[in-house]
Amino acid sequence: MSEQTQEQVGLRRTFGLREAITITAGTVIGVGLFTTGGNIVGEMGSAVILATFIAMIISVYPALLYGEMGSALPYAGGTYRYASLGIGRPFGFLAGWNFIISLVSVTAGESLAFSYYFKTMFAAFGIELPIDDTILACIVLVAFIITNVRGVQITGRLQNGFMFFFWGVAVIWFLTMIPNVALPNFVQTPDFLSGMGAGGFIAAVAMIWWCFAGFETCCAMGEEIKYPHINIPRALILSPFIIFAVNALFQWFLVGLVPPEGLTAVAESSAPYAEAMMSAGILGFPLLLLAAGIAFGGDFSTMNASLAVPPRYLFTMARDGAMPKVFAKLHPRFQTPYVAICTLGIITVLLVATGSLIYISNLSLFADLFYYIIGIAAAFGLRKKLPDLKRPFKVPGVIIGAPISVIIYAIMMTQLVPEAIITGVIWCVVGLIIYAGCRAKYKTAKSPDLSAIKTDEPPAEEKARMDREFHIWAGVTVAVVIIALALYIVPALAL
Q: What is residue 181's DSSP assignment?
């Protein structure tokens, strides 16, 4: 198949609302929650719910902006495409380039987290696996790279399986752990919390917010989502609240299980949830259940999703002439951007080799914040440059909401470790050099044909089914959010 034919073929629309939600949530629910996010619980105790709630609040408006852009411009590439149209191609490139390294970092961190919790499964019964964390992480990475090359439908099916396995195990674990939760822990805060200061609190919120970053993931796969003008906004309306509920529930159990004297160890552990259970003397099957759910549910779902999405960005950028054309090649059989998948897989392995979750998480956080600032600016720019663009979903208050969101994200960026900031800047510079070379070589870059955007309405029966599915998702999400908040409030009132 020629390069021209490949570009004409494009990607296949195979995902519905369920996949849009599970891929988005799966990208997010994993390494942050079960590693560095768990460390913050060790630092803040029950006060972590405040940081988590703030992280959700500052995610909602940007998520809605992405819902607007994703419904109007259902292309592969997400923010890269939006920023290119709204504020210029160099900014679009920087958005896509930083999104790539952000999710590549997430994948690297997730594979390391998998190795920690996988080994914990055996440690629950006193068995120590004689294999290095980085080697185990790389083996799993290669398996997922092969799976992603074989096709998006396999990726979607696996995502559903991993997510529902995670939720199934989580429910069982929650029920079995309830008798071990000590309610007095919720009114006892760590001694070092008072010395955190404003900067420390902002840093804690930033690290918890990393557990939310990726709430717009489904936008990157807009070219593969059915009825994107309906499904993308719906997925993004729900995603911050779903992520909040999951984080809050797991944090609640972490606070309830850990005696105050054990919080320091949780704050410093590479597998804080396992550390919490061991500090509470809970070993054997309950620890095995936790580790299996995190490793094969949370970790696998995030790895699968975060490996699937960045290559679509690189594919789109190459198709537009912003990256070497080789990355626009589709596999002749599977119709996947296999060159992009394999290249980013190699970069992921290199990050895994550092063995540092702190460095990896801060690099991802730098890229996320930079990327979202550009994305928010793009939403504002699109309103100005393309006022007549059909917007099936439109967000109010952009003039006020967009600048406030940018300021908040810029403040959080100041709290990152210097090594991550330096690496992020180098990544941007290298990317701009490659971009300039490609622009010089290919001369012109493609612009999407906005008149060709199809927003066909689904048949009445299909629309009714989609509405029912959305209402079920929304109802369950609201209920779980209320329950999660009540679990923190009630102990404080009762004790």
A: -
Which residues pair with residue 15 across a beta bridge?
Answer: 225
SS (H, E, C) 243-269: HHHHHHHHHHHHHHHCCHHHHHHHHHC
154, 14 in Cβ contact below 8 A?
Answer: no
Q: How far apart are CA 376 and CA 86, in angstroms?
A: 10
Give mean pLDDT in consecutive 10-residue pieces for the chain, a chain of 495 residues.
Answer: 41 72 71 83 89 95 94 80 90 90 90 89 85 91 84 64 80 87 82 72 92 82 80 91 91 88 85 86 86 83 77 84 89 82 92 90 94 94 90 92 95 92 95 93 67 73 90 94 92 73
**Total domains, the chain:** 1
On the CB side of 98, how many CA atoms lie within 13 Å of its CA?
32
SS3 76: strand
453 contacts: CB under 8 Å, gap ≥ 6: 72, 73, 74, 390
Alpha carbon of 277 to those of 45, 109, 211, 291: distances in Å? 15, 22, 21, 11
User: Buried (b) or exposed (e) across 354-384, using 16+ Cβ within 10 A?
Assistant: eebbbbbbbbbbbbbbbbbbbbbbbbbbbbe
Give me the domain span that covers residue 20.
3-494
Beta-bridge partner residues of 225: 15
Return the closest-CA partner of residue 251 out of 282, 280, 272. Answer: 272
User: What is this structure's pTM?
Assistant: 0.83
